[in-house]
Amino acid sequence: MPLFRRPLLPALICSLLWGSSFPAIKSVYHHWENNGLLLTLPLGLLFAGVRFTLAGGALLAVSKNLKLQLRATPWKLLATLALTQTFLQYLFLYQALAISGAGLAALLVATGSFWWMLLAPLIQKTPWPTSLQWLGLFIGGIGVTFAVYKPGTGAGEPVLGGLLMLIATANGALGLITFSRIKPTMSAMNATGFSLFTGGLALMIAGSFALREIPKMFDLPVILATCWMAFVSAFAFSMWNHLSTIFPVTLLASYRFLIPICGVIESLLFLNSESPGWGLLLGGGLVVASMVFAKRTTALKATP
Questions:
Q1: Cβ neighbour number for residue 210 with a 10 Å cutoff
Q2: pLDDT tens digits, residue range 74-98?
Q3: Gap between the Cα atoms of 117 and 298, Å rounded
Q4: Is the pLDDT reported for residue 6 higher than 60?
Q5: d(CA 267, CA 126)
């Protein structure tokens, strides 16, 4: 008997955890700026790499049957998972947060479900969206346009930040599709640990030009934030990937509307530098409405 009979509660837990990462990352960036540390691309990559290497290492430390599962799983799939789910997704996400608001970035996480609806038919040969689902995608696209147009104070460069988030969520969707091919030979925990650890190491290597700044980067507040986000990554990714072994991925992806809701609310609650504009509120409402609509139509199709 599966631990979870319905995906709502664990999806909500994952969403609350992931949502907390947006204000946490932005708070670290503000902390560095207040301390006179220039926020560069290598600095952000090194910061992300430390987080995910810690998270992946913690999971691999408690893994079971890792060697056997690594031998049974094609290395190309493992490399693709680490590349898309960790390295590329967070390379673009961390840079998006460096130049735009946390609330906007959190909202645009919703586009991961839209990418799934478009990429899954191309890669997994699943059915294309129905006419009603295409309508939902169109409404979601309008919502994203509004959100980027008038996101509110603290938005920075919303257009470029929005574009980077779209690239990040596309890679996240590719990572989920790749994991669906890995799960027959590797557990969710082991696959997640491998992805986070190897992808984290790659991010650290990419950000190695900032190694001389480590003493300035990691004071006590940043160390605590990094440890929290490492826990978020290890726990939430493992649970989410585990859920994909229980429920249809199309049904699970439809619950991703909880992530932007939690991320936007937590960003506005914990960041004094941000307040929502009418575009973020109206666009967010349209995006969430389109995702709920897609969830209902997908759930109906997934019901036997």
A1: 22
A2: 999 999 999 999 999 999 999 999 9
A3: 10
A4: yes
A5: 35
In a domain, 17, yes or no: no
Helix (H) or strand (E) holding 88: none
Mean pLDDT of 93-112: 87
In a domain, residue 8? The reply is: no
Cα separation of 117 and 16, whole Å? 23
Cα angle 67, 73, 75 (rounded to 5 degrees) comes to 100
Please give the structure tokens belonging to residue 196.
């986070």
Q: Residue 86 is part of which domain span? A: 25-302
Per-residue pLDDT tens digits for 153-174: 656 788 898 899 999 999 998 9
CA distance 120 to 249: 10
* Positive or negative torsion for Cα 101, 103, 104, 109: positive
Number of domains in the chain: 1
Q: Which two tokens stand for residue 34?
A: 């207040």
12 occurs within a structural domain: no
**Total-model pTM:** 0.86
